[in-house]
Amino acid sequence: MTNADPARPVPTASSGGSELILRILSGLVLAPLAVGVAYLGGWAFVVFWSIAALLVLWEWCTLVAAGERSTVLLIAGAAVLFALLLASAAAPGADGSHSVRLVAGATLLLMGMLATAALAPSDRRVWTAAGIPYAGLLGMAPIVLRNDAQYGFLAIVFLFAVVWATDIVAYFVGRAVGGPKLAPRISPKKTWSGALAGIVAAVVAGLVVAKIAGLSDLPVVAGQKIRGRVVGIHIWRDSVVF
Q1: DSSP secondary structure letter of residue 123
Q2: Do residues 226 and 183 both lie within one domain?
Q3: Strand partners, 181
Q4: Residue 48's pLDDT is what?
Q5: How many angstroms separate the CA atoms of 63 and 179, rounded?
Q6: Which of 48, 70, 189, 228 has the most CB atoms around it within 10 Å of its CB?
Q7: For residue 169, what are the CA distances in angstroms to 59, 175, 198, 202?
Q8: Which residues, in sequence order, are bridge partners of residue 183?
Q9: Domain-ending residue, one of 148, 180, 207
Q10: Domain hosting residue 230, numbered range
Q11: What mean pLDDT comes out for the span 105-123?
């Protein structure tokens, strides 16, 4: 007989069903929107990911900045937003100015980290400052990918396909199969069965997109995805969450 934790609510079928319905509804709304703005590119794409990054930053500051949330969010939000604007202007070109803009964006994130660390409570400075690169890079990466005139949209579709396939398959396989937990201390619901199924799904999704796009060297694509997902799992498991 397993030991029960009285402080932890017992999951029920209804709560699981509500979570699944919420995931499906969110996906039906957000997935077409994300693909649509990726196809449009330009400022629509930049605005979409800027909003996403600022929402992530707001949630992070709400969790870790306590009473200093408003001040920290104002400075951190400005740093993230200007970094994203620089990233959006960093289209590849022969003059090399895109690299300068990306370096400037990274410098802004660093300055924002230092400023927020100085304003945050002494026992939360590291965690508060860490939210800036977390939110900033989340927004900068897809913007930089989409900047490529030839392969930008394909790169974003590839990214979406791999991430969504991993998340969906890992969720359903993990719930259906169960088994040993991946990292009980960090996320009690994640299992090895779901993680391994997610790796397979990521490889398949990446290969499908690459095949449709007419890319060659499909075995290389598959190998890169397997290595990337395995390394990602190990990094995630080794993270220390307080």
Answers
A1: G
A2: yes
A3: 191
A4: 94
A5: 31
A6: 48
A7: 26, 10, 6, 9
A8: 187
A9: 148
A10: 150-242
A11: 88
Report residue 111's pLDDT band, with 50, 70 and 90 as the boundaries.
very high
Secondary structure, 3-state, 149-208: CCCHHHHHHHHHHHHHHHHHHHHHHHHHHCCCEEECCCEEEEEHHHHHHHHHHHHHHHHH
Domains of the chain: total: 2
Q: Report yes or no on 48 lying in a domain.
A: yes
Report CA-CA distances (Å) from 2 to 5, 20, 67: 10, 27, 40
Chain centroid to CA 192: 20
- Amino acid letter, 68: E
Residue-wise pLDDT tens digits, 62-93: 888 767 778 888 999 999 999 999 888 876 65
Confidence of residue 57 (pLDDT cuts 50, 70, 90): very high
Single out the residue of 110, 126, 122, 112 nearest to residue 72, CA to CA.
Answer: 112
pTM summary value = 0.72
